[in-house]
# Entry
Amino acid sequence: MPLLVTGSIGIDTIKTPHGMSERCLGGSSIYFSMAASLFAPVRFVGVVGDDCPFDLPGLFRGRDVDLRGLEVRSGSKTFVWHGTYHENMNDRTTDHVELNVLQEAPPTVPEVFCDSKFVFLANTAPALQMQLLSQIRSPLFVAVDTMDLWIRSSLPDLRELLKKVHCLIVNDEEARLLAGRLNLIAAAEAILVMGPRIVIVKKGEAGSLMCLADGSKFILPAYPATEVRDPTGAGDSFAGGLMGYLAQARTTDFDTLKRAVAYGTVVASFTISDFSLAGLTAATRKDIDARLGLLRKFTCF
Amino acid sequence: MPLLVTGSIGIDTIKTPHGMSERCLGGSSIYFSMAASLFAPVRFVGVVGDDCPFDLPGLFRGRDVDLRGLEVRSGSKTFVWHGTYHENMNDRTTDHVELNVLQEAPPTVPEVFCDSKFVFLANTAPALQMQLLSQIRSPLFVAVDTMDLWIRSSLPDLRELLKKVHCLIVNDEEARLLAGRLNLIAAAEAILVMGPRIVIVKKGEAGSLMCLADGSKFILPAYPATEVRDPTGAGDSFAGGLMGYLAQARTTDFDTLKRAVAYGTVVASFTISDFSLAGLTAATRKDIDARLGLLRKFTCF
# Structure
């Protein structure tokens, strides 16, 4: 079942203790689509400026990613992000940002995408996420990401959005900030009261936590990686693997959700193994399934 | 099969965001024994001063804890520790320490304990741990704890000790410090080269990681607790539940080790639910088994 994603496309410059990658391809929708297309057809909605140096059709060649929602906006400039990861690889500093086209009007969802049933709204202003979502006629399962900036600056919009979506995927600090609770379980439970029936909290090296409105919980460690070269895109790849698996399964019962979190975890472990999209792009579905089997062996008792 | 433990007995004063407990019972061997006695007979070796205000035989009444190794040293004073937990409940500050009897001669292992097969050497100077271990004739499985102080000040002694034990149980910062590696998997693998065939890394709220010399790995999240009132003793309770289960099982194959880590995790979740020993003491084996079932449900996919 096709899965619609809207999010950023960026020109990233990344420094980590393992090296540097200048003006490489990044952005939430890129990582998400590369991950999700391992599982299901992806409908891509995003916008770049006419300075965009990347061959996106070439990047996704051989994958079922429908780029009819990709807008190349004349006279606009592509989003730029420079970041540095510190020695522990969990903390990062944003060195430089040029929002550029991201602060202009959002891209339009093509009419042929408006019947999408699975939808992921990557991190952007909640009012824009709402505007994008309103174009989808009858979605079955909508997941959103957000960030500290919107929790602080656009909380009323975000609270409205949370009433309309099924699942929120955020990191631990964002969950604590949104809920005003330090304990992550308590934070997730407080967010469930705001609307979504599923809250998934990404904890980086410590794995992830999923809480459902019916009280079900699932906790999964990160895949035990000894080689972490570039964590950029880990969260978006996690969301892509997770949503891709759900769209493939066409269902969101608890057992399927648990496997989806596990697939997201494994996909992210390939992303962080190399700079930019190199690790994720090299992974096949067979690699993913093999690592899922290992993760099960590492975690079940 | 009886399990021998040597470690501290302390008079603790604990402050957490949830309250304060003054001059309550603490110490590694106390938490360890209370946890381990849920599973197997415990042989207790420790020393207090004649100022010790606690009724230890009364505390362990109804549990199979053999206190013939408890020495009440005339003219000496009991170990005192004051600590404050910060808002996140993971970080703590030691406000005040009086080592007292802990800096005198260690207690003697009673002759009737010298045939013990399972042994846990709680955190103290590695030379003392070695001296205690040398009194055990033919142990089958020896686990040790250590801390940053000894890694920095007594590394040669610690390296000697690590050649003689089967398992090291440390927290994440200690593992990183000992191995000189930031990545925890890499750190555990570096420690395996120093001698033990098993390294177990406690990560607090993030759970634990076990690496074996044969390449096997097990990763388990912490039990999802919403009520954390006092984390004191969590690590020693974890070790107690783990070692108690191994002593009960009389074996240390990988599947048994995985279940032992899970039992340690669950036992620790009772410890942190209340101040001092209140949460742990109230837990029955039936409570523990019920929560183990839940933990399996929360983590397996």
